[in-house]
Amino acid sequence: MVGAERRRPVVVLYERIVDAIHAGTYPPGSTLPSEPRLAAELGVSRPALREALLLLQEDGLLSVRRGVGRTVNDRPPRRGFEHVRPLEELLGAGTPARVRALLRTVEEPTDFTAQHLLAPVRAELRFWESLLAAEGTAAALSQEWAAPDEVLERVHPAFAAALRKAALREAAGGTSMLAVLVGASRGVALGAHSAVTATLLGRRRGEQLDRPADTPAVLVTQVVRVGETPVLAAKHMLPTGAPALPVLQSD
User: Fold this and answer.
1) Which one of 62, 115, 202, 246 is most buried, by most CB atoms within 10 A?
2) Are 31 and 37 in contact (CB under 8 A)?
3) Averaged pLDDT for residues 109-116
């Protein structure tokens, strides 16, 4: 989860309102109180409230109707990364995004994987790079690494076997590494940590996603663990214009 100590006040306010929606304080179909009243109820300033409400509108939880005000949508978007689910399921509005394999290989640890997978210098890590397409457009670029085989054999042998089987299929097209992990984890408790940052695509990723290099993007980094042992690390790059991704965190 994103560290609470680094969340902006407007994000905390956003989450408070969403929690109230899910708790039934503002049920689907209801109209929110006026801004002055809602600001008083929540004990916040009107500028901060207005910013949070705009974010809620952008994320599809609220709608503005002339003469009525802000109403809670009948089907608020489902929550996202508090459950370990493949990105293609979260991006697809009812229909999973399509996964196209760009690269399936084995590589030595980078600074990122050494830090997040605790991989030794000479380890061999399975690396998958995939392009996710949703609503007819390139929606995300995913890079996923699995922990060394000997680690997986010790802490999650079913995932190790599923990865080997997936690697035998032609380029493992249509599947993400996280989908393989989730599918192999019935009865295995997974824990995950995600962080979200704003960035620019850059030249290479821009070419892969068919966007200019200076396109604003969201970078989601993710580490999935079995117990205290990391088994998968990933970077997901989502450019401006991609389908909305629910990333609201819950405690």
Assistant:
1) 62
2) no
3) 92
